[in-house]
Amino acid sequence: MKRFKRILCYIGTDSNEAALSRAVSLAIRNEASLTIMDVIKPIPKGIVMVGDATDSEELQNIMVNDHEHALLARLAEYADTAVPIELVVATGDPATEIIRQVILADIDLVIKNADGLSAPGGAFGSVARSLLRMCPCPVWLLKPEIHGQFDRVLAAVDLDADDDIHQQLNRNILELALSIARAEQAQLHLVAAWGLWMEGPLRKRMGDETIDQMVELQQVKVRRALDELLPAGSSDNNRIQIHLHRGDPSEVIRSVADTIEADLMVMGTVCRTGVSGALVGSTADSIFSELSCSMLAIKPSGFVSPVQVAARV
């Protein structure tokens, strides 16, 4: 899986090693460079330590240096990996600073532990949610306290999408999930939900017979989209377990993830209007709030982050 060339791993000085060890492993496998990043809170302007002439700016620099030394100590065990590693310690809002670094350094993958977790089933924290919404490159969120190695990878796609951008996103999701499953020697599952838009109200107006015919046509369309998504003639197709269910996307995806005990879900996070709703919106928020596995989320091509980039001071 040599698709990532510049990987960023966000870690706090007190976080566990799951994100760091996987980032180093991926960097080795992809022959990629690695940025190790931490973000600390800014010191309020005007603060002066009692009995000392140190002002807020100097104190901020001291804290940055301390964090850099702490990160260097943690990286000591990876010194013989020959991976090019850069340390970045920024001040400010973590999600904003991570995204700024992604844009400035042309990062193509962000890895971090899923914050905001205290127990299995807990929600992704605020930093993770901000990255899922605004980070232009793929974001890999690890839940190490729930799963170790990836044995079951689940790719979630939207087969109702009929525009080029989202069809390409589906292909990217499947391609990435497939490459991870091969590398991890894991089972690959593919899940998609389908349905007829406004089926309930339409039945009242048009009758069951007409709507049943429309449902059959929609099912044929979804099956055709699935056939077009799977690589033609690929031997991997026989090893992909398909979960194609009629129903609400968030409920279907969560149910399949729980049933197969997925270790990793690969999915798109993109706000779009249309029949099947937005994957950053009600569907994705519902999935994020109860997902019990790690997640690798990607954006469609052409996504532009709302985060503004300027030179750091």
The largest pleated sheet is described as: 10 strands, mixed
Helix content: 25-40%
- Percent strand: 15-25%
How confident overall, as mean pLDDT? Answer: 83
Secondary structure class reads alpha/beta
What would the CATH topology of the largest domain be? Rossmann fold
Q: How far apart, in Å, are the first and last alpha carbons?
A: 36 Å
Q: Which sequence of SSEs, written as H and E, runs from N to C?
A: EHEHEHEHEEHEHHEHEHE
Subcellular location: Cytoplasm
Pfam families: Usp
Protein name: Universal stress protein
Keywords: Cytoplasm
Question: How would you sum up this structure, described in words?
Answer:
The protein has 313 residues and is of the alpha/beta class. It folds into 2 domains: 1-143, 3-Layer(aba) Sandwich (Rossmann fold); 147-291, Rossmann fold, CATH 3.40.50.12370. It has 9 helices and 10 strands. The protein has helices spanning 18-30, 56-74, 94-105, 126-134, 164-184, 199-206, 208-229, 249-260, 282-290; strands at 6-10, 33-40, 85-91, 109-113, 139-142, 152-156, 187-194, 240-246, 264-268, 294-298. The protein has a 10-stranded mixed β-sheet with strand order 3-2-1-4-5-10-9-6-7-8, with helices on both faces. Helix 6 (199-206) runs antiparallel to helix 7 (208-229) and helix 8 (249-260) runs parallel beside helix 9 (282-290). The longest helix is centred in the last third of the chain and has 22 residues, at 208-229.
